[in-house]
Amino acid sequence: MRLLWKLVILLLLINTCAGAGAPSRPDFAQEPSDVTAPADSPRSELRLRCAANGRPAPRYRWKQNDTDIDFTASRHYRLDGGDLVISGPRAERDAGTYQCLATNPLGTILSQTAKLRFAYIEDFETKTRSTVSVREGQGVVLLCGPPPHFGGLSYAWTFNDSPLHVQEDSRRFVSQETGNLYIAKVEPSDVGNYTCFVTNQEAQRSVRGPPTPLVQRPDGKTLACPGDQLSGPGEGGGALCFPLLWGGTSSLH
Ligand SMILES: *[C@@H]1O[C@H](CO)[C@@H](O)[C@H](O)[C@H]1NC(C)=O
Ligand SMILES: *[C@@H]1O[C@H](CO)[C@@H](O)[C@H](O)[C@H]1NC(C)=O
C-alpha cells in the first residue's frame, strides 16, 4: 500500500517536471517589428525577433516576401529559438518583408509583417554652388539640397574652414525639414563660404556639400526681391524670393 502511494507521488512529480499540462495552441509572446539597417556599414548579424508560447513548444518557420525561407539551403539565414538571424545583411539580397510562423500539433499562427529596409545617403554632387550676393541688413537663405537617401536626416552648416557648426541664434536658423540655412540682417562678418553637413543616423553616415560662397552686394544695386522678402539662390543660381516673417519662423521651414 505504501509503495503504491509512493508511485502515485512519483508520477505526479514526473508530470510536473516535464511541464505537461493542458495542450494549447501557439500564442505569440513576441512578433517581429520593422528594422532599418545601415546599407554602407553592414553589421555582421541582424536579428528579427519571434517567440511564441504553446504546449507542446512550437516550432518556427519564416517567410520572406511571402515565400518560405529554406534554412537547409541558406548560409545567410538561421533560426535561433524563434528569431531569424541574418548574417552579413545586404540590401540587394535581404530587403523585403518578413513573417514568422509558429506551429504545434494544435495549430499554426502567422505573425505581423516586419519590413527590413536599408538606410543610405549618397554623396553630394561636387559641382560648385553659385555665389549668393546679399546686401548688408538683408536676409538670405542658403539651400542645402540633400542627395538621394533613405532614412531620417539632420542638418548642420559650417562656415569657412571652421570645424565648428554655425550656431543658431536670433539671426541664424537651420531648418531640420529642408536643411536650408536662413540668415537675417546680414553683417559683413557673415561673408564667406558655407557648407551643408548632412547626417543620416540610421545609415551611420555623414556627407558634406560643396561650399556656397556668400558675398556682400555693394549698396545701391537693384534688388532681385522686394525689400520685405529674403533672397537666395534658386536652381542654377537664379534668385528666389521668400516672404520675410521673422516672428513666425515656421513659415520658413
Ligand atoms: C521583396 O520584395 C520587394 C518589393 O517588391 C523587393 O524590392 C525585394 O527585392 C524583394 N526581396 C527579396 C529578397 O526578394
Ligand atoms: C571661399 O572659397 C573660395 C574657393 O574655394 C576661396 O577662394 C575663398 O578664399 C574662400 N573664402 C573664404 C572667406 O574662406
TrEMBL record:
Classification via Gene3D superfamilies: Immunoglobulins (2.60.40.10)
The reply on keyword Chaperone is no
Question: By its UniProt entry, which Pfam families does this protein fall under?
Answer: Ig_3
Q: What is the organism lineage in this UniProt record?
A: Eukaryota, Metazoa, Chordata, Craniata, Vertebrata
Q: Which domain of life is it from?
A: Eukaryota
Coiled-coil residues are none
Entry keywords, A to Z: Disulfide bond, Repeat, Signal
Annotated protein name in UniProt: Contactin 6
User: What is one process in the GO biological process aspect for this record?
Assistant: axon guidance
The stretch of residues making up the signal peptide is: 1-19
Q: Which PANTHER family match?
A: CONTACTIN 6, PROTEIN SIDEKICK
| Ig-like domain sequence ranges | 26-117, 122-208
Q: GO: which molecular function terms?
A: cell-cell adhesion mediator activity
User: Which cellular components does GO assign to this protein?
Assistant: axon; plasma membrane
